[in-house]
Amino acid sequence: MEGIFVALAIPFKNGRLDVESLVRHVESLTKAGVDGFYPFGTTSQGPYLTIDERREVLEVIMSHTNKQLIVHVFSFDWGDVVETVRLAERFGAAAISSIPPIYYKPDYETLRRYYSKLSELTKLPIFIYNIPQNTGFNVTPDLVARLISDGVRIVGVKDSTGDITQIMGHVRLGITVLNGADSTILPALMVGAKGCISAMANVLPEVMREMFDDFKAGKLQSAVERQDLIARVRELIRDYPGVDAYYKLVHLLRYDFGTVKEPYLRSLSDEEVQKLRDGLVRLGLKPRL
Question: What's the CA gap between 210 and 233, in Å, rounded?
Fold first, then answer.
């Protein structure tokens, strides 16, 4: 697995899944040339989605694209993890993924047991999703190496630390590394990552496609320019809470789009959206009216 996977934004409207917006979004991203979809992670508001919502999202994805699918399966309820794994199998996922157990900081043995249990559930390849800024726990290359040595069937890591030294450590293990930090996609590719799982791909999928293709073709200056634009747009939303800023960027730069699932997360205010709009204009982009 390599290329551009979208950490899929999943829109809601009046507290319910906005299916119309989601269909349009999946079709548009497919047309833009992304390589795959990664639902139910951070940008998807994954921990807050019910099994019925997860099932409906997967039905939309698989009805409107033929791209690869990596399904993030974590839930606080193990029964929901099992059901999400079954959904991933049913809808033809190429792999599953999960953050480590959260809230109570895990030790190595907890990690080993958790990912071993996942391995027992399915024959699908398993990616560790490492996002310590959200989970409070960093799954380092040394820990991944121990898991593999102990027979846990880990084939790759989505690493969202933005730490290139850590990315290189994962690459040295010989596993598939997908970068999850939008500001360091190109540097990660240069040290051996196979691609990215990107929130910003919801917003600028064409730019992502061009950057990846430029890198593969050896057109590094062009790739750097596109990475710079991605990083500058990402910087605009750095201080906003949750993930609704990504949803508003989709709305401003692409088409009408829903919002987050309240009250777990909050929508941006009109003033915050206007500030985003002004920032996009300063970058030379043309937000919708």
Answer: 16
Task: Give the tokens for residue 238.
Answer: 């750095």
pTM above 0.70, yes or no: yes
Annotation marks residue 129 as catalytic: yes
Active-site choice (38, 114, 129, 247): 129
Binned average pLDDT, 10 residues per bin, the chain of 289 residues: 98 96 99 99 97 98 97 97 98 98 94 98 98 96 98 98 98 98 98 98 98 98 98 95 95 97 94 97 95
- Domain ranges, ordered by start, for the chain: 3-202
Distance CA 76, CA 56 (A): 20
Q: Considering the domain 3-202, what is its CATH architecture?
A: Alpha-Beta Barrel (3.20)
Q: Is 275 a catalytic residue?
A: no
Quick one: tokens of 213? 């293709």
Residue 79: CB atoms within 10 Å: 9
Catalytic option among 158, 246, 248, 261:
158
Inter-residue contact 5 to 178 (CB < 8 Å): yes
